[in-house]
Amino acid sequence: MKLDSRLMAIANLVRKDKIFADIGTDHAYLPVYLVENGIIQKAIAADLRVGPLDNAKETVVSYGFTDKIELRLSDGLDNFMENEVQEIAVAGMGGLLISSFIERTKWLKNSDVHLILQPMTHVEELRKTLFDNGFVIDNEVVAEDDDKLYIIISACYYGDATAFTHLDLIVGRLPLNQDELSKKYLSKIYNKYYKKLVALKNANKECTDLEKLVGELSKWQL
Ligand SMILES: C[S@@+](CC[C@H](N)C(=O)[O-])C[C@H]1O[C@@H](n2cnc3c(N)ncnc32)[C@H](O)[C@@H]1O
Asked: How many separate domains does the chain show?
């Protein structure tokens, strides 16, 4: 199994020898790669729909991993039991949908459970959900595929809600990274807010907070 850079970056965050769940698995590429490379022994590949789960079945059967990868219909983690899995990836879905899984799955509030989240949208809202619900973001990486940048968040339950600023929600842990993709992502964010600021200034609108934010974001420019 050869993964694209985005799925590879997710695979690199999976802890070894745990039971893995891939939520919204579609073709089950991730669990198949992890089993094939001996990173995990057992996985549950889950999806909301029968069609994607049929795709997953085809991949799992063709690799001969039917004894190691279980297929399961599930809306988020609704059809999972507590203590069934420790490593959980949720990739390729919107940040608000991922947030809703976290908010309604109470057993995720366990420090043995590790979340690897790759939101396609609403990254800031997802970070807020994690902070508000007592999760700590211990790592964030940026992957690039077809000229698109993706954020991957690694988080575990800690207990206390984390205090955060608006800037924390926007940049997460990326300023701590030294790699080029993180720097590129931070530049992209800076440009987005800088353009907003210019538009407000041109319209003679109040922009003190935004000006401050852009000033803070400028610290991480290439
Ligand atoms: C864009 S694909 C992502 C596939 C794979 N995770 C990846 O990142 O390449 C999104 C998948 O999530 C599934 N999905 C959407 N909503 C879901 C939900 N509420 N619970 C579980 N899976 C869901 C879709 O059926 C689809 O297979």
From this structure: 2
Final residue in a domain of this structure, among 133, 148, 164: 164
Expressed in angstroms and rounded, the spacing between residue 32 Cα and the centre of ligand 1 is 16
pLDDT in tens, 125-184: 999 999 999 999 999 999 999 999 999 999 999 998 889 999 999 999 999 999 999 999
For residue 176, which amino acid is it?
L
Q: Could you tell me if 157 and 59 lie in one domain?
A: yes
Give exposure, 30-50, as e/b (b: 16+ Cβ within 10 Å): bbbbbbeeebbebbbbbbbee
The pTM is what?
Answer: 0.97
pLDDT tens digits, residue range 37-65? Answer: 999 999 999 999 999 999 999 999 999 99
Burial of 95 (0-12, 13-18, 19+ CB in 10 A): buried
Co-location of 85 and 171 in the same domain: no
Closest CA to ligand 1's atom 1: 92
* Pocket (CB within 6 angstroms of ligand 1): 7, 23-26, 47-49, 52, 75-76, 91-93
- Determine the length of the chain: 222
Domain co-membership, 130 together with 214: no
Residues 153 and 82 in one domain: yes
| Structure-token pair, residue 82 | 């507590």
Segments forming the whole domain that contains residue 41: 5-164
